[in-house]
Write a structure and sequence with these properties.
The protein is α+β, with helices and mostly antiparallel strands. 34% of the residues lie in helices and 27% in strands. It has helices spanning 4-14, 55-71, 88-91, 95-109, 161-170, 180-190, 196-205, 218-229, 246-249, 253-262, 278-284; strands at 25-28, 33-43, 76-87, 113-122, 127-137, 152-156, 208-213, 232-236, 269-273, 290-297, 303-307, 310-313. The strands form two sheets. Strands 7-9-6-10-8-11-12 form a seven-stranded mixed beta sheet, sandwiched between helices. Strands 1-2-5-3-4 form a five-stranded mixed beta sheet. Strand 11 and strand 12 form a beta hairpin. Helix 2 packs parallel to helix 4 (95-109), helix 2 packs parallel to helix 7 (196-205) and helix 5 packs across helix 6. The two termini are 18 Å apart. It binds magnesium ion.
């Protein structure tokens, strides 16, 4: 059985699909603007469990994960469509009211207009399809393919929080009775914040040479940049920002690193910058907590993990759906 990535890669080759392979498709809009568009499917018991979350949190996540893909292109989100299939047993509850209420709160917050969608019944599970479109100046969408040897690698925020939250949920911890540190981590998993403002600023400054959002996990998402850019990377273990609350979950350095390197769904931005442009980072983005974690190499598709005195190869672990 091919993995999800291999399946898409095969489709891309078989049908010579030229516009896939990035966080969003980039389409011409007019002489000054490109349209970027993304779609995300959330399936009950694959991407979320009703017993672990709430209809409001699903509404937020459905929109946020797509907004994160728009941010990863350096674009401004503008329009959205939302389709949902729900089973009979939820049809007569307040599930849809709560779902859409939160969805609209998030769309208002980021100034996104709903322009369509669909609704249907399913035999027994909830399925949500979220489509978001955004705009970026012509030719200025930040792609996965722009990284060059010598570029520096950065992430916004701290990593591993969402995967730790998932671990707590899998271990039986629930939001209602969670301790404060547990709640923080569970919210990272169930209530992600897309980096919309940073994405728009990066589109305007054109600072990153390549960018992706961290949905699959650092090891996999950096591998996506390396593959599309035909480069390699070197990551300095001590520079990887690990979410502080993970210290309460585990004392094991290896486990913390595993969560930060391979855990998915943090929805931070991973980006590369030509060292010549670093002054833009210092001048325009002082208030953002970026972390320099490594550099791009010419060693195609090899990601080296450097810690004091030794080098290992970082394999993409992929996002583990539960
Ligand atoms: Mg993405």
């Amino acid at each position: 059985m091919p993995t999800e990535f291999e399946f898409i890669e095969n489709l891309r080759k078989k049908f010579a699909l030229k516009r896939i392979g990035d966080d969003c498709a980039v389409l011409p809009k007019d002489s000054k603007t490109d349209l970027v568009i993304t779609t995300d499917l959330l399936v009950e018991d694959v991407d979320f469990r009703l017993a672990w979350t709430t209809p409001e949190l699903i509404g937020n996540k459905a929109l946020s994960v797509s907004l994160s893909d728009i941010a990863a292109m350096g674009a401004r989100p503008v329009w959205a469509m939302i389709s949902i299939g729900i089973p009979e047993k939820l049809w007569d509850t307040d599930f849809l009211d709560m779902f859409y209420q939160e969805w609209f709160i998030v769309s208002k917050k980021f100034d996104v207009e709903i322009v369509g969608g669909d609704i249907s019944k399913t035999p027994d599970r909830v399925v949500v399809d979220s489509i978001v479109a955004g705009e970026v100046a012509k030719g200025e969408a930040i792609l996965r393919s722009g990284a060059r040897p010598g570029d520096l690698i950065f992430v916004t925020g701290e990593l591993g929080g969402a995967a730790s939250g998932l671990k707590l949920l899998e271990g039986g911890v629930r939001l209602e009775s969670a301790k404060s540190w547990q709640k923080t981590l569970i919210y990272k998993q169930l209530n992600p914040t897309p980096q919309v403002k940073t994405g728009i600023q990066f589109g305007e400054s054109q600072m990153p040479s390549a960018m992706i959002d961290l949905s699959d996990g650092l090891s996999s998402d950096l591998a996506h940049i390396c593959r599309e850019s035909r480069v390699g990377a070197r990551v300095f273990v001590d520079k990887v920002p690990i979410h502080k609350k993970i210290n309460s979950l585990t004392k094991s350095r290896d486990e913390k690193l595993d969560l930060a390197l391979n855990g998915g769904e943090d929805f931070e931005l991973l980006f590369t910058v030509d060292p010549k442009k670093i002054f833009v980072l210092e001048k325009e983005h002082q208030n953002f907590p970026f972390h320099h974690i490594g550099e791009i190499t010419a060693n195609a598709e090899i990601i080296e993990l450097i810690s004091t005195g030794k080098t290992a190869i970082l394999e993409p672990k992929g996002y583990r759906h539960f």
